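Ticket #558: bound-state structure for adenosine-5'-diphosphate.
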Amino acid sequence: MTVTTSATEPPRAAGIHEEPQGPERAKRRRLQAARMAVPIGFLALWLTVSPLTELVSAPFATIAELADGFLSGWIYEGLVATASAVLMGFLLGTAAAFPIGYLLGRSTGLRRIFDPLIAGTFAVPRIILYPVLLAVFGVGLEAETGMVAISAFFPILMATTASVKQVSESLLKLGRSLRASRLQTAAKIVIPDAAPGIMVGIRIGFSISFIAAIIAEFFAAKDGLGLMISEAYASLELARMYAIVLLILVIASVGNLVLWWLERRLRHG
Amino acid sequence: MTGPAKTLRSDTEEPTVVDTTAATATGSGVVLDGVQVVYPTSDGSIEAVRHASGTVSDGRFVSLIGPSGCGKSTLLDVVGGLLATAKGSVSINGETVRGPRRDTAMVFQEDSTLHWRTVLSNVAFGLEIAGVSKKEREARARDVINLVGLAGFEDRHPRELSGGMKQRVAIARALLLDPRILLMDEPFGALDQQTRMFIGRELLRVWDETRKSVLFVTHDIQEAVYLSDEVWVMSARPSTIKSVITVDLDRPRVAGTMADPRFHELTTEVWELLRVESEKALQYRGELP
Ligand SMILES: Nc1ncnc2c1ncn2[C@@H]1O[C@H](COP(=O)(O)OP(=O)(O)O)[C@@H](O)[C@H]1O
Ligand SMILES: [Mg+2]
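RESOLUTION: The complex was predicted; output attached.
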């Protein structure tokens, strides 16, 4: 068997190999059990803690409140607002960061010029730009989307630059000796070789997109899950507050899982 | 020294410029004419090759041997059109080399397999870049895969292959381009002695069928003598091609070739030339008194 197993990388049926059998399969079962244990443990902790304090609503009350949100519809407006800000901002940020990161990774000259600038601005908390965006666009989806885009931009830019820069010199040499065009070099050599690193940046960018949207909504928004959380908190509707927190947790996790799965697909071709 | 070594760009649109004046001046095959290569470094420049001249005539197998760091890879990159000379030139069948050409193919010293692609798609990669249809390039790739003994591994990824198999993938990829000139940079460098003799014999078998010109870099004296028509011995840096030894052993070379007293004479001769240069190289680097 050439398949190796580790905690982060479950075995994969490689090439001409059959589905894993015997010990391989037992290993995979144990791994899946270990993975299931984490959310179950979380639920158990929640069940234990909630009766002890009034600050934490019970799991069942929370889930019932969330179900009510979907059934009677009060959650949709906020959900749609946040989801559109996150998705559009994330896509905008990626669309800007990826090509710029690619060019910076490929050109030492450009890196020399822009590296200090990027390193410097990276340390600036992005949220201070929100008032500027509010002044330009007014309170609403545009300002929030802009905030998300700016937040997603940096990690994706940096990851793309770093991974493109590290593309193997011998592969680039191969490309040149085969007379590959710039486009062929990008599509068939640089991007595939850099893909795992770029995907890490995209995953981080996605998580940060969510954070940025919620924080922006805490601050100033017309709609959104973040706004609903702060309103529920202010009116001490704890079940509703936890219901929305739970929803964000689920959406962010599922989104990140999809990206993680994509990343693994890319890594293993 | 006239200037730093410039990296040449491959240019798919423009064909390599034909220098007709050079065609009359030089003969057929690969002609190195007073090649000097200088690399820019952070504190000035380094003269990797001082003056290299020689001719690889059509269909000849030439080995390039020399102390490590003497500029063998550099010289191969120049012939492959990847690196510009500071002085002198390389011409192929009378045309000055100004960039990578269709009639040369390279096998690099380092692993150059694309790790996200299968063996089949790695071998077909050169034709893919050249715009050959998937069906045709894969059909042709399968033939070459058989030729280099990788049949059955078409769908494997490089991480599932040994170092020797990865080198065969790179060799197959180069062969599939059907170049007139094959430039190989220590293709068996990472392999153990048994494997390299075995693959070396297979390379000779393929070469026998195709009779391409080969410029083969190695640091293994026996390998150089066993495979080649000529062995070029390079001096320590700043380097020149110091001696050319013609290998007058019968072809096809067989296992018994190595027992031939002439084989022993030739390897001893190369060893003597090389020993002097290696000592110079070590002294230069301060590893010998
Ligand atoms: N890209 C480069 N920049 C600067 N110096 C280089 C570069 N490549 C090679 N050199 C130097 O040029 C000399 C010859 O290198 P190389 O051709 O790789 O030697 P060999 O293949 O014979 O071992 C060495 O001293 C090496 O350090
Ligand atoms: Mg070398």
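RESOLUTION NOTES: The two ends of chain B are 29 Å apart (CA to CA).
TICKET STATUS: resolved
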